[in-house]
Each structure stands twice: as structure tokens, then as C-alpha cells.
Design brief:
Elements lengths: L6 E2 L11 E3 L2 E4 L5 H14 L7 E4 L5 E4 L17 H17 L23 E3 L8 E4 L2 E5 L6 E3 L1 H12 L17 H12 L6 H24 L3 H9 L2 H24 L1
Antiparallel strand pairs: 1-2, 2-3, 3-5, 4-5, 6-9, 7-8
Helix pairs in contact: 2-3, 2-4, 3-4, 3-5, 4-7, 5-7
């Protein structure tokens, strides 16, 4: 007798092809940070933050069982609906609400937070660290869900805003973009997202510095995975331009640093 039908969900890199939907639940492999992220999801449920999946337990295969959040998720190449300023505003507000919801959570009482994409300085909120278009669910133009909390870890608000802006503005040299149109003007989009989150004008320089820190963390993360021979990351590294993109991104950010600060400060 066969079990319930499983629908493989698209997206992801490390977990590509292993996350499935069964009815109104999602099943995904447990990982090193699962205990910590489960505690965070349970906290979100307790405080009424309803834009993260609910942790429902573990199935007979040892997979985590999460609630399914219905809606649209943008996948590369990103569709036009996901590239508007209105979407940036929704994402900025969603990230702020998620951070605020972690305010009463004692992260120090829980071990096992991911160190893969963590803020090197730590901080007072729980950062998602991977807010990209593939991880935000929209319904009717409203951001209703923030998925995949595997990389969550204590950090600074601005660090998580910087990571999110990197993937949403995007802070990528236009000629090296593979998922976003080269025509997108990332500088004003950076400002839209930051202001929607609530970044203050006097924090503009600190936010741009956090972009630099975030890029260093990302480079080290991908380099570890590539060196370990993880084929999903090797493919991603090659597809998105590898060392050439990293060099051009650095040059682009250096040339636009003051513009980015002004975009935040208004």
C-alpha cells in the first residue's frame, strides 16, 4: 500500500530535490541546526508571528514536518511581479516583523545555531540570513511567509538587512546578473528596502559596511562547500560567474558606496 503522494518543491541549493509537500505539510531533511530552528519556530507560534512555518513534528523517515504556506514564490529567472518596489517594501516590513518577534526569545538558552552564514559580531535578534526571493511567499501582493530558517543565528538587524538587500536589490554588477534583469537600478532599490525595514538615515554607512561583512561571510560559505566538492554549490559557483563575478561585484560596490549610503539616508 503506497503512502500519500509527495510533490517535490522547487528551489534550494543544498536541499534541492529533497523538500516535498504532502497535503498541507512540508517534509524536509533534518540538519545540524534543526533543534535550534525548531525552538525558534515554536517561539514564533507562541508569540503569534504567523509568517513562518509551524513546526509540527518529525515523520517516520526522520524528516521535519512543517506547515505549508500557500502562495507564490519567485524562482529564477525572477518574474516581473517579484521585481517591483512594492515587493521590496513588503520584504523590508516582513523582515522587521520577524526580527521584532524574536525580541523575547532567549537564543543563549538554545544550542546548535548555524554558523554557516551567521553575523560574525553576533547580536540581539535572530537573523534569518537567507532572505531571498525563493524564500518569501506572496499572496495578492502581500508577503505572507518567510521560509527556510536553517541558517538562523543571533546577529544584528543591519547584518540581516544587508544580506537581504544583496539578493533583492540586487547588489550585483549588472553584467553578471543571471536571475535579475541587468536594467534594474539597484541603488534606489537598496534605499527602498532599507527604509521599508526602518533603517534610520544615520545608520546608512553602517548598513553599507554590513554589506561588505555579509559578502565576506557568503564568500567563505560558498568556498567551503565548493572545496568539499558539493556539486550543487560547484554548479552554482560556475553558473553565477565564480571569481570573475566576485571581483566585478566588489568593484561595483566600491564605485557605488556613497550612492548606496545616500539612497538609505534619503
Amino acid at each position: 500500500m503506497s503512502g500519500p503522494a509527495e510533490e517535490v518543491l522547487p528551489g534550494g541549493v543544498a536541499n534541492e530535490g529533497t523538500v516535498v509537500r504532502i497535503g498541507d505539510t512540508v517534509r524536509r531533511p533534518a540538519g545540524p541546526s534543526s533543534v535550534a530552528t525548531r525552538a525558534l519556530l515554536l517561539h514564533f507560534e507562541a508569540v503569534g508571528f504567523d509568517r513562518a512555518p509551524r513546526f509540527l513534528g518529525v515523520d517516520e523517515q526522520g524528516r521535519e514536518v512543517l506547515s505549508y504556506i500557500d502562495g507564490e514564490v519567485a524562482l529564477p529567472p525572477f518574474p516581473a511581479w517579484s521585481l517591483t518596489d512594492a515587493v521590496l517594501v513588503e520584504v523590508g516590513r516582513l523582515l522587521r516583523e520577524a526580527h521584532d518577534a524574536t525580541g523575547g526569545f532567549d537564543s543563549g538558552a538554545v544550542g546548535g545555531w548555524s554558523d554557516e552564514l551567521a553575523d560574525p559580531e553576533g547580536g540581539a535578534v535572530l537573523c534569518h540570513a537567507d532572505v531571498c526571493p525563493e524564500n518569501v511567499v506572496f499572496r495578492g501582493g502581500v508577503a505572507v511567509g518567510l521560509l527556510d530558517w536553517d541558517f538562523a543565528a543571533p546577529g544584528r538587524r543591519l547584518f540581516d538587512v544587508a544580506r537581504t538587500a544583496k539578493m533583492y536589490a540586487p547588489l550585483i554588477e549588472p553584467s553578471m546578473r543571471r536571475a535579475h534583469p541587468a536594467s534594474l537600478d539597484a541603488v534606489p532599490r537598496f534605499g527602498v528596502l532599507a527604509r521599508a525595514y526602518g533603517v534610520e538615515p544615520e545608520e546608512a554607512a553602517a548598513l553599507v559596511s554590513a554589506v561588505d561583512e555579509s559578502r565576506a561571510v557568503s564568500r567563505a560559505f560558498v568556498a567551503r562547500r565548493v572545496a568539499a566538492g558539493e556539486q550543487a554549490f560547484v554548479k552554482m559557483w560556475r553558473t553565477y560567474g565564480g571569481e570573475e563575478r566576485d571581483r566585478l561585484d566588489s568593484e561595483w560596490l566600491g564605485a557605488h558606496r556613497s550612492d548606496l549610503e545616500r539612497a538609505v539616508a534619503g
